[in-house]
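In this section we turn from sequence analysis to structure. A common task in structural bioinformatics is to predict how a protein folds when a small molecule is present, because the ligand can shape the pocket around it. The inputs are simple: the amino acid sequence and a SMILES string for the ligand, here adenosine-5'-triphosphate. Study the lines below before reading on.
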Amino acid sequence: MNSHEPLLRIQNLDITFKPKAHAVRSLNLEIDKSQIHGLVGESGSGKSVTSTAVIGLLPEPPAKINSGQIIFKGRDILKLKQEEKRKLRGREIAMVFQEPSKYLNPSLKIGEQIREGLSLHLGMARKPALERAFELLSMVGLGESRRVLDSFPHELSGGMKQRAMIAMGIACNPSLLIADEPTTALDVTLQLQILELIYDLQNRLKMSILFISHDLNVVKQIADRVSVIYAGKIVESADKKAIFKNPLQPYTQLLLLSIPDPEKRGKPLKAIPGTVPDAEFIPSGCAFHTRCPYSKKICAEEMPLLKEYKTGHFAACHLLDGNTG
Amino acid sequence: MHLMMFIAKRFARLILTILLISTIIFFVIRIIPGDPAAVIAGIDATDADVAAIRAKIGTDKPIAVQYASWLKDIATFDFGNSMITGQSVTKQILRRFPITLTLATLGIILGMLIAIPIGVLSAVKRWSLIDYFGMFLSQLGMAIPSFWLGIILLLLFAVKIHLFPLFGIGSIKNFILPALSLGFARAAIILRLTRASMVEELSKEYIITARAKGLTERLVKYKHALKNALIPVVTVSGIQFGYMLGGAIIIEQVFSLPGLGRLFLTGIYQRDFTLIQGGVVFVALIFSLINFLVDILYSLLNPKIRIS
Ligand SMILES: Nc1ncnc2c1ncn2[C@@H]1O[C@H](COP(=O)(O)OP(=O)(O)OP(=O)(O)O)[C@@H](O)[C@H]1O
Ligand SMILES: [Mg+2]
């Protein structure tokens, strides 16, 4: 792959859940410094499990990491001790979640929820940490008054809550921010505002962002690079332009056809036939072969590898290797 | 603003409850058999004697008149004079109440001190030794009647080992054993609630956020989860405290404490209508007042309630 060392490199990550759900299957993913990396996939494809593993919070059991590496700044997160992982969380790798109303503590003030991370990781005293919390709130557009600092989550609107959550995420200036569907729970106008905010913050702070979404439209607006995940495996990964202009893998192609295009209003969408396989019953070979219109014999038999077909454009598909039988 | 409205509403409810209870108790003691005039007069008295006494204590008047004067008494917080001894019921109650209040307060404090730490630890270390111990303790607390526990404690720690005094009200030591027997059953309920509440909070999404922030497990559990878990615990403990005043009346008998229990029991034996009425309304008033305060406390603890 690339000669330079990326900020995060996930290699052959394989995760199963208690009885036999195969949530993540030999997954490969690289995130460069200062890159917004969009991770796209349907519900249940393993996006959250992957990101939870990256931040070192996968509950084992029921989860079991069978193999793989998650190299962050040269260290394998999977080999770190609990305490080392804890020090990384919130400091080097931070996370923003989908539903701010559930993911914020209802009985702690916003200021306090931002402050505690600052005090813990940066050793800041209470007062300067609260000052810093206010600065952070200003950075996410909640700086017009100090009221937000002293508010409980339920006193804020949905959009404000998500902004506060983002302020919490960037508090210690992490190198990697994981945003797991940060706009899904919001209505469309708010979605756009939050996307813009994340985009602007990335420009200012130069952190890398793993932006998780099931919505290609959203990813199209924000990402530098896009990876498509299907049944726990990356099936295509390339720069945004390449993915949207020249998708190689049939699943990506169908996914692109199924997104509503604002310019072709009124035309019926082409939904991909069939449903995402259950993590307990993943088809043999290429997991997509049961829904793939070009499926060949080999597709049901052998798992395709993620290979570089053009510079920086990776895909996993037998058809690309000229297989016709 | 919202809080004031809330308090006003709860206060109106309190007044209504007291009115209802005073009405019920007024009629109930007059329906059940037993005539205070007969008690005062004694067995040898003639019908004329009894009638004279009735006239003196006022039970010869029509029910409606008696009821009206009773309502007037309540409105002025003067429960009248005892039909038997002629002493002011209010004064008698207020003289005895500190003993019962001390007992119940100490009881709820001991109960919470036992229950909350064990409940929290049980939730944090589920299916561990401490959890099983907690379950055993709460089973015990629910199964054992407090008066029986009181007798056992008394025999053990006052009669066999002279750790605590057998009777008297001179020092706090006199209250420890009765408070413990009273608080144990309450502790069982509080323990179960604490465990359940803590388990629930620990499974909520904001806990993931707290961990993702890199907080230590100690902060995650004892700051983030506990703060939310204690909200229902404090509320229920307050309500339990109200019940405890009732329970105290029985425990006072076991430990010969001259609290409200003794006073009311005497009143019941002697068919002392004014004393019984006054006692019941007083206990109801205290009980409602506690619930009223608990409601306010809950709304202060839980920022969500305050707004809605
Ligand atoms: N706690 C769990 N226990 C058992 N299986 C789990 C658990 N969490 C995830 N899985 C399995 O892992 C698969 C992937 O789940 P994941 O949450 O990563 O999906 P996702 O891509 O984030 O989906 P969504 O878009 O709905 O959030 C699920 O289909 C499920 O079978
Ligand atoms: Mg998810």
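Chain B touches chain A at residues 204-206, 208-216, 219, 223-224, 227-228, 231, 301-304, 307 (CB under 8 Å). As an exercise, try to locate the residues that line the adenosine-5'-triphosphate site and compare them with your own expectations.
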